[in-house]
Amino acid sequence: MYICAGLLLIACTSKKQSFSENDIQGKYDIDFSTYLSELNMESEEDSLGIAFAAILLSQMEMTMQFDGDKLIIDGAPIMKNLVNVFGDTDVQMPMSVAYEIRNDSVLYIKYEENDFEKYGILRKIDDSYDNLQLVVEEDGEKTFLTLRRQEK
């Protein structure tokens, strides 16, 4: 009986969702479709704004590359312009920051000389590392982004 319980416990707590820097090395396209689906479900009253955002985001290309201990985020010029207009800093792309994976799947990033800060949680969508979900939580709201590994 104890052996069965032990095997069940080991099977249920396997490190299927654990990540290491080696597992996720490579370049990923950021897919905003999950985020757009969330917007559609949350606010039906602003359907025109959602439609405009959907058109805009569908035209934007962004990539996230895990390269050694660096995370490189790059995007189309329109993305940089939008971030600079609506943000409070001047963003330069490509942007390179140090990163670490802690506690099996928590992504921490380090801007310049600051300490590492929690950025989000990485989840595998399937058995490989070709499709990942990045969950970013800010001000109590979660944003879900899909990362799709580019062909080599």
Tell me about this structure.
The structure is a single chain. This protein has 152 residues and is α+β, with helices and mostly antiparallel strands. It has a single domain (21-149), classed as Lipocalin (Beta Barrel), CATH 2.40.128. It is built from four helices and eight strands, in the order αβααββαβββββ. It has helices at 2-12, 33-42, 47-58, 77-86; strands spanning 26-31, 62-67, 70-75, 95-102, 106-110, 117-124, 131-138, 141-149. Strands 1-2-3-4-5-6-7-8 form an eight-stranded antiparallel barrel. Strand 4 (95-102) and strand 5 form a beta hairpin. Helix 2 (33-42) runs antiparallel to helix 3. The longest helix is centred in the middle third of the chain and has 12 residues, at 47-58. It is globular and about 45 Å long.
Helix content: 25-40%
CATH architecture descriptor name: Beta Barrel
User: With helices defined by DSSP (H or I, 4 residues minimum), what is the helix count?
Assistant: 4
Q: For the report, how would you describe the main beta sheet?
A: 8 strands, antiparallel, barrel
**Helix/strand/pairing category:** alpha+beta
Main sheet: strand order: 1-2-3-4-5-6-7-8
Using DSSP, what is the number of strands? Answer: 8
Protein topology:
Blueprint lengths: L1 H11 L13 E6 L1 H10 L4 H12 L3 E6 L2 E6 L1 H10 L8 E8 L3 E5 L6 E8 L6 E8 L2 E9 L3
Antiparallel strand pairs: 1-2, 1-8, 2-3, 3-4, 4-5, 5-6, 6-7, 7-8
Helix pairs in contact: 2-3
Task: Sum this structure up briefly.
The protein has 152 residues and is an alpha+beta fold. The chain is built from four helices and eight strands.
